[in-house]
Amino acid sequence: MKIENNKKKIYKLFLLPYLIIGLITVSIFTIFDNFILLHPTKIENIILNIFNIFIYPAELGILLYLYFKKTGYLDEPRNAVKDYDLSEIYTKKYAGIKYRESNIKEINIYIYDLNDLFHLSPAGIFYSKALKILIQRDFLDYITPDEMDAVVLHEIGHFITNSGLIRKVLAFAILLAGGAIIFLLLTIFMYGVQLSLLINLIIGFLTVIIILYSIFTIIFNREELSCDIFSIKELKKDYISTALQKTSYYLSKNIIGHRYMIFRIKKQINKRLKKIEEYNETNKFK
């Protein structure tokens, strides 16, 4: 306990002030760089632009992370309440699952109400050190106990394979590329540049974002399918398909105002159902 307290003290004393000072410094360079360097050389200009484009978004991202960490957003699911009865039931059922180096000791089930765009999926996992599975309250009325088992095992599959890590890295890369475009435009506005060069630079960064997003989508779909198959293997029966069908129906009936997002999710569900059907017939992906 003393060690943990000391770690927290070190964190508060050194890390947080450093990041705040870093953010202020970077902001000053970003806004007033043309005043700070009145006659910059080419090398200084390049260094300054790299500083503006990459380090500022990184600092901002870290500070946002620290803010959410401090508010508890990253430790406990927002607007969700732990269901101790369900948690106890599924801990007894699946706490012994082992995969590679993972060994699940406790399964926490959180119930929450549909409230915003970030909670369109009726079930999901909250990435933290402990396994926290989120289920929308109304969705429980749509699925059977067997389908609930399939959903829980699907989310366990995400946890034990740490599938969210790659997605987080790619999402940060996309954010960084977007920030790079903003600060590139800011630098160009300050120093001026030929229109053709500006267009080429913007197209280049947009191309990077599109490529990263495509990779993100491919990895996301593959991970979802892998967790579907994990659920089937553990249960020795395909309950996840009917759970996915009910998910699609549930979204159609209960989500209003996000038609495009619902269309995308339902399209992904249909692709997963086809792949699951292939797996059930051949025991492998095609």
Automatic annotation (TrEMBL):
Its cofactor is Zn(2+). Keywords: Hydrolase, Membrane, Metal-binding, Metalloprotease, Protease, Transmembrane, Transmembrane helix, Zinc. Residues 130-248 form the Peptidase M48 domain. It comes from the Archaea. InterPro entries: Peptidase_M48. GO terms for molecular function: metal ion binding; metalloendopeptidase activity. Belongs to the peptidase M48 family. This is Peptidase M48 domain-containing protein. It comes from Ferroplasma acidiphilum. The lineage of its organism: Archaea, Methanobacteriati, Thermoplasmatota, Thermoplasmata, Thermoplasmatales.
